[in-house]
């Protein structure tokens, strides 16, 4: 499912247009920035798209992940422990949190300097991010729903 979502997003004309706006500032990381920026806009539009109040959703998600730790390898288990401990999902709810998300990403990049000015970019293109997200997300939901165990095949 994750690959199908990535493919739909990568081939979406609106997403491509947004990435083109970001490329002069952030080069090859435009798509990564768009992906992470959409997480913030999901939170901003949570009342429309979220399955439950955000605090309930995060606690349920953390409990589900934490309860399945024994099925995970040690590296993933470490990520899950840190995610729950530091409430990573909450980071996507504020500009300060987003700065921390991008700050954690920088050491893993070969050209971290391409993230310079990311906070300004998120502000400067706020409306473009939101409009692109609002156009894309219903299609992502439809795609994800097709992977549900109870999904009925369509002709």
TrEMBL record:
<dbReference type="GO" id="GO:0008770">
    <property type="term" value="F:[acyl-carrier-protein] phosphodiesterase activity"/>
</dbReference>
<keyword id="KW-0444">Lipid biosynthesis</keyword>
<dbReference type="GO" id="GO:0006633">
    <property type="term" value="P:fatty acid biosynthetic process"/>
</dbReference>
<protein>
    <submittedName>
        <fullName>Acyl carrier protein phosphodiesterase</fullName>
    </submittedName>
</protein>
<dbReference type="InterPro" id="IPR007431">
    <property type="entry name" value="ACP_PD"/>
</dbReference>
<dbReference type="Pfam" id="PF04336">
    <property type="entry name" value="ACP_PD"/>
</dbReference>
<keyword id="KW-0443">Lipid metabolism</keyword>
<keyword id="KW-0378">Hydrolase</keyword>
């Amino acid at each position: 499912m994750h690959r199908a979502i990535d493919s739909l997003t990568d081939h979406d004309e609106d997403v491509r247009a947004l990435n083109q706006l970001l490329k002069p500032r952030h080069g090859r990381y435009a798509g990564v920035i768009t992906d992470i920026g959409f997480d913030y806009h999901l939170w901003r539009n949570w009342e429309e798209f979220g399955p439950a109040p955000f605090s309930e959703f995060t606690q349920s998600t953390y409990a589900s992940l934490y309860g399945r730790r024994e099925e995970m390898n040690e590296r993933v288990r470490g990520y899950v422990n840190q995610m729950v401990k530091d409430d990573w999902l909450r980071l996507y709810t504020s500009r300060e949190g987003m700065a921390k998300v991008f700050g954690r990403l920088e050491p893993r990049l070969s050209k971290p300097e391409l993230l310079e000015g990311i906070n300004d970019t998120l502000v400067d293109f706020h409306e473009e991010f939101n409009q692109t997200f609002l156009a894309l997300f219903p299609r992502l939901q439809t795609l994800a729903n097709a992977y549900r165990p109870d999904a009925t095949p369509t002709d």
